[in-house]
Amino acid sequence: MDSAGKSFKIVPLDKLNSDVQHLITMSTLAREKAYCPYSNFKIGAALQCDDGTIFAGCNVENASYGLAICAERTAIVKAVSEGKMKFTKIAIAGLNNNQFVSPCGACRQFLSEFNNVNDDVAIYLYQPKGSNVLVTSISELLPMDFKFNEIKDYLNKIY
Ligand SMILES: [Zn+2]
Predict the structure, then answer these.
(1) Looking at 32, 72, 113, 150, which residue is catalytic?
(2) TM spans, by residue (predicted)?
């Protein structure tokens, strides 16, 4: 956290490591594949695993609105279904009135399921064609995340 209490920083795209820039490019390419005829709100995500593998995802909407799946969860499900569960970083590309698009609550919880507190998943928010990137992490975006083991420990104590 900086002195203003913000738990993120804004970094020029060209100052980030080349692997992060590549991940961001992958998220912008995934965004182009978004299926969002109802909202026209395109989002792309690119998730990097600890072995360097990258899984990209886009949002996929449905005529039954509640069935829509976010880009972040698309990428995570693709990775997990390929046997990858250790993630190092995720880039998310979206445009919303000149603001960075941050993962929704469901995606934060979904990502935290695979987060290791000692090796926090870095999050890079990017506006396509922008020159800056908002850099944060899942533990910063979702403090006190729900973990089943904590509930299990609690239940073991009271029963
Ligand atoms: Zn989401």
Answers:
(1) 72
(2) none
- Among 44, 12, 10, 7, which residue's Cα sits nearest to residue 25? 44
State yes or no: 60 annotated in a binding site. Answer: yes
- What are the chain's domains? 9-158 (3.40.140.10)
Task: State residue 93's pLDDT score.
Answer: 98
CA distances from 105 to 26, 55, 99 (A): 23, 21, 17
CA distance 26 to 94: 12
Active site residue 72: yes
Alpha carbon of 99 to ligand 1 centroid (Å):
16
